[in-house]
Amino acid sequence: MVQKDKSKKSQPVQDRFDSARAQVDVTQFTSYREFLKNLYDRIKTGRKSYSYVRFATDLGLSASNALWLVLTMRRDLSEASAQKIATALEMPHEARKYFMLLVRHNNAREPGQREAYMKELVVLKSQHFMNSDDDENTLEFFQEWYHPVLREMVALDDFKADPDWINERLFLRLLPKQIERSLDLLQKLNLIRYDETRQRYVSTGEQIFPSRAVGPLAAVRFHQKACENARESVTAVPSQRRDLNVMTLSISDEAAEKLKTIFHKACEEAMALESQPQPRTEVYQINVQLFALTRKAPGTKNET
Fold first, then answer.
1. Which of 71, 70, 53 is nearest to 62 (CA)?
2. pLDDT tens for residues 179-219?
3. Cα–Cα distances in Å, from 112 out to 83, 119, 186?
4. What is the pTM of this model?
5. Helix 111-128 vs helix 215-236: angle between axes, to the nearest 10 degrees?
6. In sequence order, which ranges of 154-214 are alpha helices (DSSP H)?
7. How far is CA 130 from the centre of its chain?
8. First to last CA, the chain
9. In this structure, what DSSP letter does residue 2 have?
């Protein structure tokens, strides 16, 4: 009697596995859980019987619910398991390195560790996964808090491209080299230009839209830096120049969705207010965050 090798995938599943592997690029993600969940969803399309247990074995792991526990944030993915997954997916060297850094970053508990791994991810992305110089410049723009700030400062009525003048106006000081590099970057991105008639930098009014290659990582860095500014403002900015409110609420998912709508409308009103004719004398930052602090109860839909 011939025994079938159950470890081998059937051809239809193999085809879907290979197709999903080619379509789902790990370097487009900032969460290894989202990457694996996206990969699973692609493979499962058109095959309702495909399970997390089968997914785990296809990825070189044991036939158990351990991977499901990882994807629902009840367990972290070990580095040993991550290596097996990278091998099963036949990840190229740099993609494997990105995936392993992603696992270390997502699993890290200390903020300092997470920041160190994030910086490594950004460097790796810049060196190996950029489609153009524009992508690299865009990622750099979202890497530092002061690039968006200097962009807005250029719009001030009395702006001067002088490090002493800029630092006199900022609550958080910059090095002259940082200011010089930032103004150069803003010009490369066509966000500002030098007006020969007025003998000063002016805003072009152009917007910056990250490409698919850098979008997820750029968004993460931008929000992280914005939150760092908010933290520093508590002690660096005089109380009469800031307005901070924090609430921790016990609410339903439906209420959370309503709050998102309220916040989106508030942001739209803020942008409309900025667009009105007025003296440009100050630069303010508005942060709006709404995030869950608890996981969903076991057994509920979309448990994470």
1. 53
2. 999 999 999 999 999 999 999 999 999 998 887 777 888 88
3. 24, 11, 29
4. 0.75
5. 140
6. 163-169, 176-188
7. 16
8. 46
9. P
